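Hi R.,

As promised on Friday, here is the backbone we talked about, encoded as structure tokens. Could you run it through your design pipeline when you get a chance and send me back a sequence?
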């Protein structure tokens, strides 16, 4: 693992299968490198015992810093939604 920077992402070479390079600074934030060479930024989180992942954007039009901010905002939003659902769920069953 390493802090994702433009230099690190640009230096990632495609392999036979797609793979992820995760960021040291922000847990769950990374880049997925496809065999074709396409690189997409992703955020990963756990919900209900399952790991979920969503695409933030494609490397090139978006910078690493832009996508890191988006991933951080999305992470906060997901945590708040999870907490709300846990609080509201018992009340709904009454």
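Update: got your reply. Pasting your designed sequence below so it's all in one thread:
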């Amino acid at each position: 693992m390493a802090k994702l920077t433009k230099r690190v992402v640009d230096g990632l070479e495609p392999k036979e299968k797609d793979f992820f390079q995760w960021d040291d600074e922000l847990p769950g934030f990374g880049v997925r490198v496809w065999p074709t060479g396409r690189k997409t930024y992703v955020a990963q989180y756990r919900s209900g015992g399952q790991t979920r992942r969503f695409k933030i954007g494609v490397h090139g039009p978006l910078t690493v810093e832009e996508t890191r901010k988006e991933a951080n905002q999305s992470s906060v939003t997901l945590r708040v939604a999870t907490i709300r659902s846990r609080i509201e769920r018992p009340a709904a069953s009454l």
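One thing I noticed while checking it: Residues 6 and 63 are 7 Å apart (CA to CA).

Thanks again,
M.
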